[in-house]
Every structure is written in C-alpha cells, then in structure tokens.
Amino acid sequence: MLESLTQLAADPAVWAALATLVVMEVVLGIDNLIFISILTNKLPPEQQPKARRIGIGLALVLRLALLGAVAFIVHLTEPVFTVFGKAFSWRDIILIAGGLFLLWKATKEIHESVDPSPEEDKGASSISYAAAIGQIPTCSAASP
C-alpha cells in the first residue's frame, strides 16, 4: 500500500492531474461565489449576509457530495443511444444537461440585468429569500 502511494507521488502525470483538479475547483468555486452574489443582491439588504452564508455552506456541501459522485459518473460510459453515428452515454447526457442549464441560467441573469422589462420592478427584492437559497445548490450541481 505504502509502495503504491510512493509510486503515485513520484509520477509527474499524477501531480499534473492534481494541479488541474485544483485549478478547476478554484475556478468553479469562484463561479459559485459570483452566482451567489448575483442571487443574494436581489434580496433586501438585511437578508443578504445570512443568505450568502447559507448559500456558501450549501454550495460547499453539495460540491463535496458531487465530487464523491464524480467517480461513479465517470464510469457511466456504456452507450444509451446513438444519434448520427455518435453514441451517447449517461455521462455525456449529464454533462450536456449541466452545460445547457448553465447557459440558460447565465443568459437569463444577463438578460434581466441588461434589458429589464419596464412593467416589472427589478428592485433589490425581486425574488424571495427561499427562492434565492433554493437556486444556489442548482449552480453547484450544474458545475461539478
């Protein structure tokens, strides 16, 4: 056991993979913080600090759970269906769904901030506290 760990520690490819994972987690963590900030800024000022703390906690717990599930998802490579000669596995479907969700959510948020509807008031309290907290885990789930 110790010998295999020593071999892994001496392998430059393992260190490169670890560095890549660390960089990805930092980038995704920053992405989560930006998303949490956007959502909580829509709340009344007195609710924002508590919503940020709860949101960051939920994002952290969900991120750890998803990292644990990644090993399972990586092995879901058995083709489920084929389209135009390209086989799609459950892993592919999960990654595509997550990417599409992030594109939809980012487009929606940008559209609301750039072109708000004149008949709707987009003040600080445009969403409820529960809605803001409820949306935070979906951001973590979509970017494992």
Strand order of the largest sheet: 1-2
Instruction: Point out poorly predicted stretches.
Output: none
Which value, in Å, is the CA radius of gyration?
20 Å
| Residues in β-strands, percent | 5-15%
Structural class category? mainly alpha
For the largest beta-sheet, the strand count, sense and barrel status come to: 2 strands, antiparallel
SSE string: HHHEEHH
Give the overall pLDDT as a whole number. Answer: 81
Q: What general form does the structure show? A: extended
Compute the number of strand runs: 2
**Total helical segments:** 5
Helix proportion range: over 70%
Ends distance:
30 Å
How would you describe the overall organization of this protein?
The chain is mainly alpha-helical and 144 residues long. The protein has a domain at 2-75 and 126-142. It is built from five helices and two strands. The chain is extended.
Write the SSE topology.
Elements: H1 2-10, H2 12-40, H3 48-74, E1 79-83, E2 86-89, H4 90-114, H5 129-142
Antiparallel strand pairs: 1-2
Keywords: Membrane, Transmembrane, Transmembrane helix
Organism: Methylobacterium symbioticum
Transmembrane segments: 12-35, 56-76, 88-104
